[in-house]
Specification:
Elements: H1 9-23, E1 34-36, H2 41-48, H3 52-64, E2 68-71, E3 75-78, H4 81-88
Antiparallel strand pairs: 1-3, 2-3
Helix pairs in contact: 1-3, 1-4, 2-3
Domain HTH crp-type: 7-82
InterPro entries: HTH_CRP, Tscrpt_reg_HTH_Crp-type_CS, WH-like_DNA-bd_sf, WH_DNA-bd_sf
Organism: Altererythrobacter rubellus
Length: 93
């Protein structure tokens, strides 16, 4: 529910990716550098209350800003975790 609040689409998606990176990590303090999204774009869209097109567009925007790099269909590499964290509104580190 927290992810579908009043935040804009980019913030919601950045927060979800940041949370997935932390969930995939062995360290409680640092997100993993590379992981596969556990959900399809359609599932992410449903979870965040967005359309698939918006999820795809915002993934492209996150990649264009240098926060992430997409690898194949579901692979994500965190290029700038601090930037992704700032976009997400999270304050874990």
């Amino acid at each position: 529910m927290e992810l579908t609040g009043n935040a804009n689409a980019e913030t919601r998606l950045a927060a979800l990716i940041y949370d997935f990176a932390h969930a995939a990590s062995q360290s409680p303090c640092h997100p993993v550098a590379q992981f596969d999204l556990p959900l399809s774009r359609g599932e992410i869209a449903n979870m965040l209350g967005l359309t698939i097109e918006t999820v795809s567009r915002k993934l492209g925007d996150l990649e264009a800003t240098g926060a992430i790099r997409r690898i194949g269909k579901r692979g994500i590499e965190l290029i700038d975790p601090a930037h992704l964290q700032a976009l997400s509104g999270r304050s874990r580190e």
